[in-house]
């Protein structure tokens, strides 16, 4: 049982999660059954934090199949057009960039890039079709299909949390980048409200086998040929406020009970907690719809790396 990033074997056990409870939440919230995504006979996952690099991961690490992603991508909200990291990256791009967007979805970010050569990789056939309909150069492929030294900039937006082998993906990115090329990585920030969110199936397998934190992103240069240039934390935005308030309520209830409440347990008690948190968050947002100053961190964290060597 090794950490997927640093291969360390010293971990903190954060939670035990029943596969049937995950399946229940995916079905309740998204209309998707996931039991078949897990190995036959597997009844329980553990969520762990590596003491060496800070990465959080599930054991066993189960990444979703293409069928799973086809099912959840039917949601109109799955490919977001309001990502903070899109605009932070655009501000840092040189004129006429030679850019490859890995996991580009329907190509929304690519459509924002002006000039240069812009290409994308995406495994969802329907998303590829939509991107091509916009006139974008998008292939249904992964990084190993791209020639070495073929790009100056690679973007990995909300990708590394979906993979079982992050070091392998980072190594492929380094191979495709030219010397001195830059890699933009954005992932959910599990030091923020999303890491403590109650019954959020999309932050668990088979959608997210990994849970990234800023500390883990700082450790990447020890395990892949990159130097860290910047680490950026998304501020809390109005669209995050309901989830933030909901998590605040759950955390406060846990303090009152003297324990951390389980994130994914299905029980009468946790159903009552969820409903109470929903009502409290809705009332709090209506009373104060603008995030208060210093309220907390938003959804994402982004690291900007430069290929070394």
pLDDT below 50 for ≥5 consecutive residues: which ranges? none
CATH class of the domain at 72-194 and 218-236 and 297-307: Alpha Beta
Q: By helix and strand content, what is the structural category?
A: alpha/beta
**So, the CATH homologous superfamily of the domain at 72-194 and 218-236 and 297-307?**
Vaccinia Virus protein VP39
How many DSSP-defined strands?
11
In what range is the share of β-strand residues?
15-25%
Average of the residue pLDDT scores: 93
Radius of gyration: 20 Å
CATH fold title of the domain at 72-194 and 218-236 and 297-307: Rossmann fold
The sequence of SSEs as H and E is EHEEHHEHEHEEHEEHEHHE
**Overall outline:** globular
Largest sheet composition: 7 strands, mixed
Distance between the termini: 31 Å
Strand neighbour order, sheet with most strands: 6-5-4-7-8-11-10
Helix content: 25-40%
Number of helices: 9
At CATH level 2, the architecture of the domain at 72-194 and 218-236 and 297-307 is: 3-Layer(aba) Sandwich
């Amino acid at each position: 049982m090794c950490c997927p990033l640093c291969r360390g074997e010293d971990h903190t056990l954060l939670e035990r999660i029943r596969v049937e409870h995950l399946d229940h939440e995916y079905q309740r919230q998204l209309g998707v059954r996931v039991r078949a995504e897990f190995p036959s006979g597997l009844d329980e996952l553990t969520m762990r934090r590596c003491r060496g690099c800070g990465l959080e991961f599930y054991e066993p690490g189960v990444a979703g199949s293409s069928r799973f992603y086809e099912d959840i991508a039917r949601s109109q909200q799955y490919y977001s057009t309001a990502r903070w990291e899109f605009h932070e990256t655009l501000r840092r791009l040189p004129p006429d960039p030679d850019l490859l967007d890995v996991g580009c979805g329907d190509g929304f970010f690519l459509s924002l890039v002006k000039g240069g050569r812009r290409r994308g990789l995406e495994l969802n056939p329907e998303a590829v079709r939509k991107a091509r309909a916009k006139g974008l150069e998008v292939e249904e492929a992964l990084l190993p299909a791209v020639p070495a030294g073929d790009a100056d900039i690679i973007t990995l937006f909300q990708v590394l949390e979906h993979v079982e082998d992050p070091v392998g993906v980072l190594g492929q990115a380094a191979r495709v980048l030219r010397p001195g090329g830059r890699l933009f990585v954005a992932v959910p920030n599990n030091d923020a409200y999303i890491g403590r969110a109650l019954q959020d199936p999309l932050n668990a397998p088979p959608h997210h086998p990994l849970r990234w934190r800023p500390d883990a992103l700082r450790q990447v240069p020890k395990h892949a040929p990159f130097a860290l240039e910047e680490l950026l934390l998304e501020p809390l935005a109005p669209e995050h406020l309901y989830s933030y308030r909901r998590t605040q309520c759950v955390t406060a209830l846990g303090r009152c009970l003297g324990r951390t409440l389980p994130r994914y347990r299905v029980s009468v008690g946790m159903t009552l907690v969820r409903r109470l948190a929903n009502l409290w968050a809705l009332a709090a947002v209506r009373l104060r719809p603008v995030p208060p100053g210093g309220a907390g961190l938003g959804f994402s964290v982004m690291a900007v790396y430069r290929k070394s060597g």
